[in-house]
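<goal> How does this chain fold?
<body> The protein record starts here
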Amino acid sequence: MNVSKTKVACLLMIGALLVAAGCSNSSDSDSSSSPDASPNKDLTPMTITFAAGDNNPLWDDMQSEVGKLITEKTGISIKAQFPMSGNDTDIFALMVANNEYPDIVSAKGSVGKLKDAGALIDLTPLIEEHAPNIKKLYGEYMKRLRWSNDDHGIYVLPSAPVNQTYFKAGTGFELQHAVLKELNYPQIKTVKDFENSLKAYYDKHKTTADGQPIIPLSLNGGEWQFLISVTNPAVATTGGPDEGEFYIDPDTYEAKFHYLRPEEKEYFRWLNHMHDIGLLDPESFVQKYDQYRAKIASGRVLGLIDADWDFAGEVAVLKKEGKFDQTYAHFPVTLNETYKRHDFQSTGYLAGTGISITKSAKDPVRVIKFLDFLASDEGQVLLNWGIEGKHYKVENGKRVIPEDILNMKVNDNQNFKKTTGVDMYRFGQSYGDGVKDPTGNYYTTVFPEQIEKEYTQADRETLAAYNIKSYKDLWPSEKEFPVRPWGAAWNINMETGSEANAIFQKCQDITRWHITQAILAEPEQFDAIWDVFMKELEKAGVEKLNEEFTKLVKDRVKLWNE
């Protein structure tokens, strides 16, 4: 369903620019001796066309160091197409209308539309015959790649990392280190704590050191990130896991359009209060993404409610300019202390959106072999670490990032990606953070020891003040929660053209309008606006939507656990 586009990037954290299709391989990697990293025998030059649902402003036509090596090692180059407007649905709708497709797609929430149009090929026989590394990577989760209970074909290679361990807290509420330092690192547990800190600092400082007007809190609510920055936090702060636009009863699997939960009304009432007292950026619901990013990069936004991948580029700008105190610490803020955040509750392996090969592919066998090469140990190391001797070295059997490369990666990340290609081309199947390769090294560069090396001095001071080693230490552990047997609701697609999908789209439109109206209203008008909102959802058929989505959740549980 459409909301999946908001989470793919959050779960793939990881940093946002996954869509940069490409590939990976490392001729000089220390894991290249792995028996499953056999070189691609066919080096005949070939261009694979690719369409992505996310934009990637750093895409370089594979002219970076890693990109060139990929082409040298495989013979493959990528011609990529990205959304012009930021709306991924348009690019794929046009393909379906014209019945013309590139070789591979990362269709996100439109994957169901392409599947229904017959655009995607079943990858099962290709994997069985030509992709041992892909089979090895997904391992016991191969059955989760099946499309449905009625169709066990594999049409997507999920880009969710396998056996992922989340070492970083990338969501929550963010406050500048400057605010925390001046207030002597106050307790930040509830929305009231967050509000008090913003107010205390803003009462004393109305402009930045260079004279720009300070903004206490800005939300990225002008475009699709409305879901990330405005509405998802209503669930997280009231003790619910991230299920997209639904709340799932953990015992009965009953689905509910999550705005029907009365506790969420109180979160939006708090945002209304923040607007009323002048702490919420009045442009939050009309600003374009570029405007939001520019404000953050200027250093004048004290607080955010967002996922770190959504503003990572702007934090990199601040670091490059030496404005480390204007970067952010993360906190697991709740509506009040009776709630516990579920950000780290496990979904199990979250199969879903990823890479598909279309019926228009010129050479599906060559494409799957290429993707299989990316799934090899050699390919995975190249994607994440880069080229040995250039981007990392091996000391006493351990991969190490040299200080000059690490400094560039941390403080000038966008230039680092564009120049080196490290982390640029990871768009498909991958091992998760915390997984080790046959050499005993981690496949990725995200693990506790490396994370500590990447902290700025401002981070270190904040962490020390709260007596923690990482921001994640502030959150409830994943061990406190059971694994969700359905994965995540945002990862479950409704059938294109179905009645439920039509109701869902209508409910989303109603929600955006009324939530914005309620937050910006006079406080005494809030309850009346909310009542109208609930009645409009009822008229739109929200109960029917809940029933239909409940069936989909139960089908997912059956598919994954039979």
Observations:
- The chain has a mean pLDDT of 90.
- DSSP finds 21 helices and 13 strands in the chain.
- Residues 23 and 425 are 5 Å apart (CA to CA).
